[in-house]
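During the second half of the funding period, the structural biology subgroup turned its attention to how the target accommodates small molecules. The most pressing case was magnesium ion, which had performed well in the primary screen but for which no bound structure existed. We therefore specified the complex as follows and requested a full 3D prediction, including the ligand pose.
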Amino acid sequence: MRINLKVLKTSTFRLAAIYLVVFAISTGAVLGYVYWNTVVLLQDQTDDTIGAEVQGLAEQYRQRGLTGLLDIIKERSTENTGSIYLFTNFVGRRLAGNLDGLPVGAVGKEGWIEFPYGVRTKNGRDQHIARAYHLKLAGGFKLVVGRDVEERRELARLIRTALFWALGLAVVFGVGGSFLLSRNFLARIDSISATSRTIMAGDLTERMPVTGTNDELDRLAVGLNEMLDQIERLMMGMKEISSNVAHDLRTPLTRMRTRVEAALRSGDKDDQASALHSILQETDQLLATFNALLSIAKAEAGQARAGFEEVNLGELVEEMAEFYEPIIEDEGGVLELKVSQGVVIAGDRQLLAQLMTNLIDNTLKYGRDPKTNVPMVTLQADMIDDKPTLIVADKGVGIADEDRDRVTERFVRLEESRSAPGNGLGLSLVKGVVKLHRGSMTLADNKPGLKVSIQFIS
Ligand SMILES: Nc1ncnc2c1ncn2[C@@H]1O[C@H](COP(=O)(O)OP(=O)(O)O)[C@@H](O)[C@H]1O
Ligand SMILES: [Mg+2]
């Protein structure tokens, strides 16, 4: 296996390493505490036992004198209990006990000492450590009482070794564990970047791998996948639009070409003049379509939001009415106005005016009373459900339920409307402007006719 050094640079590994250090320090502290306590406890115990025995012997000395003490020491020295005794006279000669001679350090009146001494074992002699209390008695006699503490030291050594092993293993497992963990993490990151490269190479249907554990990487992948879905949808939309545009421009261009060809062939001055005239109309129409498409694209891109200003919808509606009222009344129709005060939003005044124009334009084209053929239009600017709302309604044929979603798409015109002038982009622009203002639009039955309501956020 090739060790991948990239692993060491991952944030998981760094995190695991920090965790490991903290873990090692706390484990070390706990073990150290246990070690220290055990050692101190054992030493205290030994000291207590020795202290008690010294006291006992001193008592014997007072009661039974020198010989009594010597007897007891001789008796106790023969038992192999790990107890250490020595009783010497004023020149340091041993009178009783199992120590060969006075240990180094046993000077002064009394005190604690630790010293090495020889012990007879099955296979010869061994050096052990002893802890003892020494004191001087009257007449220059010296008493040393102690215990073999080799076992205690052995235990301390054991605990110490255990401590180092525990720490060592914690570090080894920690390092190994975090290495594996980070490698796993890295593998998933690698697969995510591999997938993104595939997607960038053009395969938009590819998706990030999701393991199903719902961890942070999974959530990241799910988020990215949602974004990819959205991008795919947008791309599909773009494709559709461009094919729509291509299709819609081909018809008028073909028409123009035919006209030009016919005019050239006929050679008649009048024919050519009328051909030029109709071509001029066609190009105006094409330019209008292009402008509408550009406006929609601009509105949908959302860049115009930077130029938002305070727009009073009531005033806007009144301005529109001022312009359209003479036109409607000329045709014998009625324009009804319902305007409340203080219906104000942040928006793009020009695009909102374009929105109103498109809607009113539609009422003039499709909102005529089927019997009398006069336009009956209602314009309203109001607070409805606490939200600034614009309503444009008519008494025409309306739009069937199943067509209401469709008509807001680009270039969609219902069959019965084909005779009226238009490019099918009016409602698309309305929808784009509404989206730009983060509002919502509903098309409803005005019984009869169409009622378009646009709700803005307050
Ligand atoms: N007020 C209305 N009443 C009935 N139908 C309408 C109304 N407004 C729009 N429509 C239908 O929706 C279609 C799309 O409208 P629009 O996008 O403005 O395109 P255009 O006006 O160029 O036809 C229209 O062709 C028409 O069929
Ligand atoms: Mg229209």
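Two results from this model are relevant to the next phase. Residues 358, 361-362, 422, 426 surround magnesium ion (ligand 2) (CB under 6 Å). The chain has three domains: 5-157, 216-299, 303-455.
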